[in-house]
DNA sequence: GTAGAAGCTAACATTGATGTCAAGTTCAAG
DNA sequence: CTTGAACTTGACATCAATGTTAGCTTCTAC
């Protein structure tokens, strides 16, 4: 599919998709005229890329990580190096702390929202 | 306490603490010489501010939110307006989506880490 | 072949919290 | 009083993903 459809189907801007390709996170064929042709599988991949961005990973690390993920259509095409594994373990710890913080913040918002709705009966 | 101690005890840089005060997130007395004097309670508050930042709230929204939180030492000093409540509900939904994404990403990292460690037995 | 939608590259802007540096002031202890 | 640590304000820099614009090209359908 071309970039417009991918953008529509993932909710990610064309600008970002081009950026992802530039960073090596997406691979696209090119038509003779030079337009990008993404595989169907790109939809899932974009969604996972977004999740990893949301988790605070930088594009460089995501680029290293992606080949080691098992895709919908098969096993991973690479195994993480020990160095990468160490990085990922650190990221995982960071994500765990982040989740804790998010849960706490969610609780704070809950309190404030509940206090207000209770105040107004 | 002065800013250095607060920075040490919260792990937040002095730069950020000054920024928080400027944004109305922290209130500090001043010594006759003009130095900030933070109350003991600022430690908890800074930690909660950091959590809210981590949750993706902007300083402006946090500033609105803070007076409505119940502090360690008492009830809330304000009740959220309906407008603010609507905002907070939206933020809460965003946080929920964010947690979901984080959990997914954590799973991806787990897979890659496990695949590597298993590969090396 | 032509019109309009969709795509391309490239460059510049934005955002928002935080880092950093400079030049000067205050504080605490001898 | 003096010295050094701690503090002040202000300005400028950074980061990384994304927005925006401009000028040009390709594709699709008639």
Automatic annotation (TrEMBL), chains A, B:
Keyword DNA-binding: yes
Domain HTH merR-type, chain residue ranges per copy: 1-68
Regions annotated as coiled coil: none
Record Pfam families: MerR_1
Claim: DNA-binding is one of the keywords in the record: yes
Protein keywords: DNA-binding
PANTHER family: MERR FAMILY REGULATORY PROTEIN (PTHR30204:SF97), REDOX-CYCLING DRUG-SENSING TRANSCRIPTIONAL ACTIVATOR SOXR (PTHR30204)
Protein name as annotated: MerR family transcriptional regulator
Species, as recorded: Microbispora siamensis
